Every structure is written in structure tokens, then in C-alpha cells.
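Hello again,

I reread your note about wanting to compare the complex against the isolated chains. To keep things tidy I'm splitting this into two emails, and this first one only covers the full assembly. Below are the input lines as submitted, including protein chains and any nucleic acid or small-molecule components. They are followed by the predicted structure of everything together. The single-chain runs will come separately.
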Amino acid sequence: MEIKIKLNGTMVSDDVPADTLLIDFVRAHGCLSVKRGCETSSCGLCTVLMDDEPVLSCSTLAARANGRSVHTLEGLQEEASEFVGFIADQGAEQCGFCNPGFVMNTIALLRENPDPSDGEILAYLSGNLCRCSGYEGQLRGIRAFLNSRHEEGANHE
Amino acid sequence: MPTSSNGARNIITFQKYERPQTLDEAWELNQKKRNRIVAGTMWMKMGTHSFGTAIDLCDLGLNQIEETDEEFRIGAMVTLRQMEKHPGLAAYSCGAVEAAFKDIVGVQFRNGATLGGSLWRRMGFSDILTVFLAMDSYVELYKGGIVPLEEFARMPYDKDVLVRLVVKKQPGAFSYQAVRKQRTDIPSLNCAAAQVAGEWRVVVGSRPARAVVLRDEQGLLAGGITEESAAAFADYAAGAVTVSGNMWGSVEYRRALVPVLTRRALLALKEVQ
Amino acid sequence: MNRPEYQSVGKSVRKKDAMQQLLGKPLYTEDIVRDALVVKLLRSPHANAIVETIDTSKAKKVAGVVDVFTWEDVPNERFSNAGQTYPETSPYDRLIIDRHVRFVGDVVAIVAAENEAAANKALERIKVTYDVLEPVLDFRTAKDNPVLVHPEDNWRMLCDLGGDNTRNLVGTTADEGGDIEAVLADCDVVLERTYHTKAYNQAMMETFRTYTELDRYGRLHVISSTQVVFHVRRILSNALGIPKGRIRVEKPRIGGGFGAKQTAVCEVYPAFVTMKTGRAAMCVYTREESQTCGSPRHEMEITVRLGANNDGRIRALGVTTLSNSGAYGEHGWATVGLTGHKSIPLYTGSLEAFKFTANVVYTNMQPSGAYRGFGATQGQFAVETTVNELAEKLGRDPVELREQNMVREGMEMPAYFGEIANACALDRCLKHCADMFDWKAKYPVRDMGNGKVRAAGVGMSMQGSGISGIDVGSVTIKLNDDGTYMLIIGAADMGTGCDTILAQMVAEHMDCSVDDVSVFGADTDASPYDSGSYASSTTYVTGMAVQKACTQLKERLCAIAAEALECDANELSFEDGRVVREATGEEMSLVDVATKSQVSNCLAPEATAMHSSPVSPPPFMVGMAEIELDRETGVVEVLNYASVVDCGIPINPALARIQAEGGIVQGIGHTLMEDVTRTPKGRIRESNLFTYRLPTRLDTGHIHVEFENSYEPTGPFGAKSIGEIVINTPAPAITQAIYRATGVWHRELPILPEHIVLAKPEE
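Full-complex prediction:
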């Protein structure tokens, strides 16, 4: 079937089997940041934003996304760049394979709740598994970013 | 539970995808044996499924929670996340809806999984079914009309279309408890307690069979909830609720949990009454 | 101690690949290869069976299917998938496809197709009849069982390590010092306790995957998510019967390994397809395959015999281990050794006698492999828990009991091959950790009401740094035209940060910035031979190769400069990133040296060095857990986990800390939630991430890691290892805390809520 998705701001259309999953659609259209970590909707690696909501692209039909807007990390490089350096300073990216899903969901978190508490960060990101980092470094990185933003805000006043 | 066994990925395969524009059209499509309504596909994706046409209800405007003075009308395509964040549901349920939903996998999953998908499958471990059974809830079926949720929970699967859930705003208070061996796992047991329109209810789910509703037929709670009456009702629940074993809990463990969660849910209910 | 102030070493510089990873660039195997045949494997539904007939004709007719291969198509020459130095200690017990299938998931057929749908359809259309045999599904009854897992007559071992396929034995090992029976007989207290740990899965986020093609010279080019490129080259050479020189193996970024990718779990299948079809091929394991047909930790049963006096002196330790290698023997013998050699030496302090014996057996279960901690994890859970039980028996604080008995700097460790603890800050780790954690306040059990209690526990750990006297590390360092360096390695950064850590060392030696060192690796065509990244080796062993190579390169650069300056090389020295002739004050910049090296020059501006260590200095660690336990539901919440690590001198403290935090979370996982159970027919129930529960960020509590430095004289800049040790302490620490909260010692992991609720207190 013909599927049209506004992928990272550009209309993409393709004739694909009706049962194509969104992850396979976006990877086939160059969005290789989107990773598959499980087959059971369990790991969060495949997180993309569909109409600005974070969803699991491995468990979402491409057909469901037809006519909608989808963002992957390829399309949100600038927004991600604002904070991922703070994760890098902690070394918390480790193997990197879960990073895109984690970064996408962090973007969603910060859009929804620009000043989250530690508890809110952990709860919002609980669907993003990471086997390397132990999570603490990711939390420290996000916290460092939020602190830097506070300082910046204070400096502007 | 999911298994592909031969090296293939868990896959959903179907040949056609339809977005009906009316409920009637959806119902018609669903009468074909090979066709399936797909909801959020979050749970479906965990297994291997093969069918003819995927019927997607996403164009039917069923993604809204309507709140009136009398009731909530929750469309089949409303996501778990929408319900979890809904201020009206939070206020009415005394936070029980959020408590029931917040540990289901993760935000992304709850943005995908829908009310309709969750209720239709009537999965035993469902936190959604358990929490809404504590309320004066009804499902609206396209052909079957309005059916009490408790009755729906016992019905066999058929080819009707679940349109929405209607929760009557009966005066009431609610609480929710669940035990998980890991924070975002499905529960070993879940339990909701309520006093709704004057009636006491305790719902026990993830037994692992479908949730059951207990009422205070013996008047154990007639004098209100106290440590003693909660314990007495917990004793009653222990005898009244049948449980069995699976990967999320042995029969012995669930047997031990039934009175514990019942008592705790009742005591938590007292706090919000 | 006064240590030199370093410019790059000891600094928390960002990982060189960090921003590429965090911005989601295409770096991993599946991202960087071109179209390839999809390789899928038909797997056995039986734990032990002979393929009687197999009919692939219908599968081959599926549109898009290129070929289907069965046992009849593969060489009958056995090999091992273990990534170990030759001659491997693992038996040669595999065929690419064996007619005799030995576990649920063993390979029955290989399908190569143009797309995934066709491959999946073909899997369904292969018709197999099996002669189903009785399986060996209890590893306690495997040895000398009449049912043989490997009855074949071409089974072989390259080394005599007690392996015997006619007895279901993969290997045996033993070590002892002193007369343990005599000492035990003389002890006031003797505890004999048996523990059981399971086949926990590494569950790295990127499952096993390999791409293969024929390169422009017709050689087999392999791009694989592996920790061991050179070992994979040998394994493929053995399996396919082609010369190593005709194979090139490289690894891109790896989505986690933790030892899983020290076994060539999936490489052989696409490689076989490429050799048969001449076409590019790709095999990506599903999560289910990764969980059920991978290379997890060895399930073990460990019996500890501990003898002590009432004054707390631990005088004798016996460890007897039974290890379940599953259907194939990868890493079986190597792993089991650590259960004794890495647990008993922790108590070198007043130990008079020790004895360690172990058997590794075959069963009809998923074959095991290497997983971070590698036997030490299991052994230390057993020994540390027994020591904690001794503390309770004697009414002693377990921290004080350890202070009394632990290994200390300068001691010879008889149970660790007689090695001397030249760098050991274990005593300082324990004190530091107790202070940081507030042990005195947290150790007493506190009732929080509503059935909840808080309690604490402690565990110590040691590991090694590389495999002494066996594994090698090497690097090549080249001077670039612009005065920067190229570091070429055969070790594998799998997220650990070794590319960056080794570059920091180069920068320190060559007086340049870390940014001026580019890293390439690992690629068997270009990298100097390195055993690969496992056994906590890369910082310690390959780091020393960096040191040697830098020394050689400096000499070489001076020699090149000497020709330009028309003097003797002895007059020149390498200082502050340039070549200096002290006598005249002349100097040459690196750009000038590099330029000179390209004109009328016979000396390459590069150096390659190799290193191997006769010793494997242990890092040490202490972990303390505070839990809140719900006595009515059995739910355990880890509130705080404090840990202090002695990894010598941390080269990159941020990365060392992340390693520790990550390892601790994995340890919490196998202690409290990761379980492996089987159906009566031997199928693993926890076959995906829905059922095999990894800790989320809500399950870990607050983790706090600090360091106590020691200085290891045989390591680069005083460094030892950190990669593995970090997983070991949670099991004993949390187990003790659970005992404190409930009065029950749990001796089997994981300790699930239901085990806590249903357990009866012991007499």
C-alpha cells in the first residue's frame, strides 16, 4: 500500500506491504538511528516521535503513521545537541546502541516537562533499557544539563 | 506468551489494511473470519499473528475522553497515557487510574497501547481491567450495546466492536495496589478497592486469570474500614479468590498475596475516603 | 605517595565516539553494510535428537529463497566457537550443522533468502523428522550419565584438561594448599553451604549479528559485532576449512558485549552462505535467539566449606564447583577456575589451608560462554555469603570480620597461583565504603512499619587483569603528516571506552593532546595481532603495548630526525612533542619529522609493540547494599548501593565509574529479577525481554561509586583492570541484607519476591 509520512519534516511516500512496521519503514528511508533491541515492546530502543508523542516504532504499524508526522533522531540533531554533550561528559553513552531511543524519549520528556525532578526523569525514561551504563550517569548528565540551563536563565535575568 | 521458536522474529503478517470511516463499516469488515481489529498493536506485537485484513479504528474519532457531570466516555482508541494524564479521571479515581497505569512498561508503550486493545483482550494480568472493574463501568459494543464491564469480562471473544468505555461518576473512592517482581513487569497480583455508590468492591486481577469482583456480602465492612475489618475482609478474599501459578507467581505466592493486597487496598481506600 | 602529574591520564575525557553515538549516527553492523542475503536458522524443538530426515525441497521453492543447507552440506570437521588463544581450552565439539541436535535451539538448517519474509516462509516449509532422545536436563546428574551429549568419535580437545566426552565431562580442575581436612578438624566453627546460580544472559542491547561478503580479491570479508576479531578469523578458518589468510574480520561499533561476543555465536552461518553462494549475507539474531541460543553465564552449583575460630580467624576455605556448560563446551574449563582462584584469595589474611576442585559437565541445554565476572561472580557469591553467615554466627560485624581476614598489599596469595598482591587497597576500599555508606547506621535492621524493614549487607570482590602468561595485546602507532598520530589496535571497544583510554595513554607518552590521536580497529587485515577484549585485559595488557610502542616510536622519530640534522640519533631526545638536540639547541617539530620521513627515507615513522603479562594483578572492590524489604509481599527495593573500587590508577575516572555503575546494575539484576527456568522438555521460558526482566532505572536505587587508588607496578601508569569486577558484589551484599531483613539465607539466585514470602526460617 502507498504510505505517506512526513518524516523529519519531509514528505516521504512509498509503496510497501500493508504489514510493514514503522521501524522498518524509517530505517529503509535512511533513519538508521532507530534501533531494534527486542521483539516484545520492552526495550525502548526504537523510540520515535509520532505527532510529537514518543512511541515504539517496532510495535507501530507504518500504516498507522500514514498521513502523520514522524521524527527520528536524524531530524532532531539540534535539539539533541543541546544536552547530549552532558551525557558524553559522564561517559554514560557507553556502547551507544540504546542512545537514540533514550535521547528521543529525553527530548519528549523535556518538551513535556522542561524542569523535571529526578523522580520524574526516572519514571518517564523507565521504558528505555540500558544494559551498560547503570543509568546513574544518564541521570547525572540530564541533571547537569538542567542545572546549566538554570544558570543560563539566571545569568539572563 | 511470545515465542517464535524457529528463528523468525515475532511478526504480525496481514495482506490488507483498512481504516473504516464508520462503525458499521468496521463491524462489517470484522465479520470476516480472517480479519482483525488492530488497536495499539503493543501487545499483539509480542506474539506471532497472521490474518487477512487489519482493521484500524483510528479514523472514527474514538481517541477522546469525554467528561460530563454524569460520566466519562472513553473511546476505544484512547491511549493508556491519555487516561493516566487525564485530570478528571485522576480526581474521580483518587489517583487509582494513574497508580494502575504508571508501571506499564514505559511512556512510549502507554502512548501506543489503547483502552480498546487492553479491554478487548481481557488479559488476566490487565491493570486496566482491574481498576475499571472497581468503578461503575460499562463497555459500549457496536451490536451488543451497553454491557456492564463485569459481565463483559466474563464474556467469550466474539466479532463485535468495542466502541468505548463508559464510567458512571457514582460517588465513590478508589485505591489500587499491585506487586511486581520488577518495576515495569506485569503484576504477580493486582487489586483495586472501592466504595462506589455505597457498595464495597474489591477487585483482584492477575490471578493470573481475569480479574474478579468481590462484594461485601457478609457485611464485614458495614462499620467502615478499620484495621480489623480490613483484615477480616482480607481473610474472606483469601478464601473467595481462586488463584493459580505461572511465570509471574506460583499458586502459593498468589495465595499469600491475595489477603495482603486486599487489606492494603482497603486501608489505602480509607485514606482517600 | 607522590605520583607524577599527568596531562591526559587520569582525566575524564569524553569517549572519542561519544557524540557520534549520542546523535544516532550509523555506526553498527546493520547500519553500515549493503544489501545482503538474509540468513535465518531453523532450530531444533528438541533438547536431544537425531535428524532422521530433512526435506528442504518445498522451502527452496519459496520465491526469493536462494538456498537451504542442512547437515549434509557442511564439513565433518569439529571446531570450537570459543574466542580464546590457541590452543583453546575449549573442546572442538561443534559442526556448522550437526545431525545430532543437542539443545532446544540447536541449528538444523540454514536458509539464505533475498528478504526476511521469504526466509521466514522457508523456515516453515522445511520438513524434519527427528529421532527424539532422552535429554540430560539436570547438570547434577550429567557426569557419567548413560546419556552422552557428545557420543561422536571426532570430538577432541587440544589440551588435556580432564575433558572426556564419554563421561559428559568438558573439563576438571583442582588446586590446594595446606591440609584442609586437618585445619577444618581443628576449627571452632565449620560451615558447609551449597549455592546455585543460573545461566544469566548478558542481554546486550545489540543482539548477535554478522555480515559477510567476498572482497575484491575474493577473500571472505566479515563485519561482525565481536570482541575478538582474530579469534573469529581462526574459528571461521577451522569451521569452513579455508586458510586464515583468505579471511578478513573487522568489527564496527559494538552494541554491548559483556563477554557474549567473545564467542563466535553467529559468524559461521552467514560466512558459510557467502562461501557457498558467493553473495553477501547477513545474520541478525532475534532477541529470542540471543536469549536461548547465545552464550550466557555458566549455571553453577558451588559448595563452600569454611573453617574459622571463635575469634574470627578464617583458617580454611574449600570450594567445590559443578559447572553446567550446556550442549557445547565454550569457555567451560576457563570459567570454572575463577570460582576458586578469585574467591579464596580474598581471605589470604589468616588462611592456613584451601582446596578447590571443579567439574564442568555437558548437558542438553543452551551452551554457555563468557559473561563479565566469568566464574568469579558465582564463586564470590558463594564464598562471600558464607563469610557473611559466619559473621552472623559469631555475632561479629561483617566489615570487622573482613578487616581481620582480608588480603592486604604485599601478601602472597597461595590460592591465586602464588601471585603477590603488589597493589592492593582492599583495606582502604572497605573503610572508605563503610564511611561513605554509613555502615554503622545502616547495618542494624530498621522496622519502617507496614511490614517493611530496612537492612544492609556487604560483599568484597577481586578479579584479574588479563590472562597471565597467555593472552597478548599489541598496537601500532604511526606518525601522520601533520604531526598527529594514528593508533591501530586489535582490541575491541564495545562501549567500554578502550579506544579513548588507549589514546589517552598515547597522548601522555607522546606529549600531545588526546584529540591528536586517532584510533583505528579492530581489523585483522590492518591491526597488529591482539587476543581481543575480554578477561579484563585491554587497559592493562594492551596499555602496556602502547607504552612499549611509544618508547620505540620516540626512538624511531629521533633516528629520522638525526638524518635531517646530520647527527647521531643518540644526541637527540623526544621532549614535549618534538625532537630536541640538547647540545646545539636545535629542534624539529613533528610535522618536520613527518615531512622528512616521506622524502629519501628508509625508516618508517611507526612502531608496533606486543605485550603479554606473566601476572594478572587483581583489582579489588567493596560493595554495600541498603534495601527496603516488604515482608508481606517479598518485594525488595534497593535504596542505596555504595561501592569503592581499587583498579590501580584509573586512566579515565568517568569511564571507570560508569563501568562500575553498569556492572552493579547487572549484579542487581541477577540477584533480584533475572531468572532462567525451563520447561520439562528443556525449553527456556525467559526467552525474550518481556520475560527475562532486566533492571530498569526504577529498580536500581541510588548507586554511588568512588575509588581508592593503588599503583600496579606492572601496569600502564599503575593501572589494573575494571571491566569485570564490578558485577560481583551485589549478589552477596543483597543476599545478606535479605537475611538481615528476614532471617533466611537464600542460596539460590535470583531471590524473587515469592522466594522471600514462601521461605521458612532455618533452624
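For quick reference: The mean pLDDT of chain C is 97.

B.
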